Amino acid sequence: MTAHARPRDAATLVLVDRSESVPRLLMGRRAATHAFMPGKWVFPGGRVDRADWYAPVLADLPPEVAEAVAQAPRRPPACPRRFARALALAAVRETFEETGLVLGRRAAPVRGPGAWARFLAAGYRADLSGLSYLARAVTPPGRPRRFDARFFLADASALLSTEPVDSHELEELRWVSLADARLLDLPAVTRLVLQLLERRWRGEEVPPPFWAWHRRAAD
Predict the structure, then answer these.
(1) Cys-Cys crosslink for 164: which of 43, 90, 99, 125, Cβ 3.0 to 4.6 Å?
(2) Can you identify the CATH homologous superfamily of domain 8-212?
(3) CB-based burial of residue 129 (10 Å sphere; 0-12 exposed, 13-18 middle, 19+ buried)?
(4) Structural contact between residues 89 and 104, judged by C-beta atoms closer than 8 angstroms
(5) pLDDT tens for residues 160-178?
(6) Is 176 helix (H, G, I), strand (E, B) or coil?
(7) What are the residues whose beta carbons fall under 8 Å from the beta carbon of 167, sequence distance 6 or more?
(8) Nearest-CA neighbor of 109 among 119, 96, 101?
(9) 134 by DSSP, 3-state: which?
(10) Rounded CA gap, 117 and 8, in Å?
(11) Residue range 107-125, pLDDT digits in tens
């Protein structure tokens, strides 16, 4: 993808474990063989798949979250709330594919669309009701791949299990504190998300930011 190509829609899920005195975040290291951010520590996520527009859910996004996600500084989507739902589902699906963690509950197994086949066949249904919206970021020009990513936040208490499993996408998955996360090899946008979380946890009311780089940037 060239620097002038349109970034692909993507979504990221920031999971917070508050079971201990210090909140912890789930992060994983991208494989060194990846063309996009090799070796970097990131939150689970990925691009929106066609099936994310159609997958069934147990509970949908809160209306105010869907509205916040759909509000775009650039060209708004034709179906804003449906678009917001697809982004949220992409974040949940990618988290399952990359970590094995399920944000949702069990239900009767059904046949589902391509990207959701394994999730639905295992009897899982996504629960989007606890998601909140954190931020939006567009990958800088000059990268092998460019993404227009929305960051969602969810509490680990909504997971069926908090024991992640390494995948071909993410390795060395860990629950880490903010302080420990800062010591990892992070992309610039991930550092911005950590700063945003710290401000919110201090009690600041920070609206979801939109970060966009118009020149090539190094992480």
Answers:
(1) 99
(2) Nucleoside Triphosphate Pyrophosphohydrolase (3.90.79.10)
(3) middle
(4) no
(5) 999 999 988 898 999 999 9
(6) strand
(7) 97, 98, 99, 100
(8) 119
(9) strand
(10) 22
(11) 999 999 999 999 999 999 9
